[in-house]
Design brief:
Blueprint: E1 4-7, E2 10-13, H1 29-35, E3 44-45, E4 51-52, H2 62-88, H3 94-120, H4 140-161, H5 168-192, H6 207-214
Helix pairs in contact: 2-3, 2-4, 3-5, 4-5, 4-6
């Protein structure tokens, strides 16, 4: 029996038969760091794997810093969500656990990339908020449904804020991250039996819209 899931105002019929779709998606943290656009163009990675922009030292791009701090808040949320899931969710199949492990690595890598980039732009990274995910880890199905909502929101957030970035290397990095977030969204959608790509065009969300969605998770 199918169940409708509403995303961006569109009711999507789910079908459990699609749950076998996309057994393996994503890349290791090392692969992500190699592929991220911000890693090129003269950027240097430190021994700890952080991404820096030495050619932008002393630059002050207030609008870019504000957008990156917005993105950082979301990445903190997602990273914390998956880290907690790995400790609390009783996974009933290997695919769901693989998704959580792989995505946790990616979200940590996103945080580790954004923090030093904000600093290189002359900004100050926002502090990590305290999060409360309620009953999201009660079981595997609840975790996956929450993950789908977060990943869908993350994609719309990057698509909404990314075009306003002004530094080319940062715009390229944001594009690289949103591509990975979209793969996460498609992966988890397939596992819950939802259509992996329900729309031909994603509907961007404003910062206010995204923060309204994220607010219930902030303690």
């Amino acid at each position: 029996m199918s169940n409708p899931i509403t995303h961006n105002g569109v009711a999507v019929e789910t079908d459990g038969s699609t749950a076998t779709f996309m057994e393996e998606v994503g890349a290791t943290r090392a692969d992500f760091l190699k592929r991220a656009a911000i890693f090129g163009g003269g950027a240097v990675a430190t021994a700890s794997g952080l991404m820096l922009l030495p050619e932008l030292a002393g630059a002050s791009k207030k609008s870019d810093v504000a957008i990156l701090n917005f993105a950082l808040t979301l990445e903190y949320l997602e990273s914390d969500f998956y880290d907690r899931a790995l400790r609390r969710v009783e996974f009933t199949n290997e695919r769901a656990q693989k998704f959580a492990e792989n995505t946790a690595e990616h979200e940590r890598a996103h945080v580790e990339a954004i923090v030093p980039t904000i600093e290189e732009l002359g900004g100050r990274p926002v502090e990590k908020p305290k999060f409360n995910f309620g009953g999201a880890f009660a079981d595997q199905d609840t975790f996956l449904q929450t993950a789908m909502a977060l990943e869908d929101t993350g994609v719309s957030a990057y698509n909404g804020a990314g075009p306003a970035l002004t530094v080319k290397a940062v715009k390229e990095a944001a594009a690289s991250i949103v591509a990975v977030e979209a793969l996460h969204a498609s992966w988890v959608r397939a596992m819950v039996g939802a259509v992996p790509a329900p729309l031909a065009f994603d509907e961007p969300k404003t910062m206010d819209e995204v923060l309204a969605i994220a607010k219930p998770f902030i303690a």
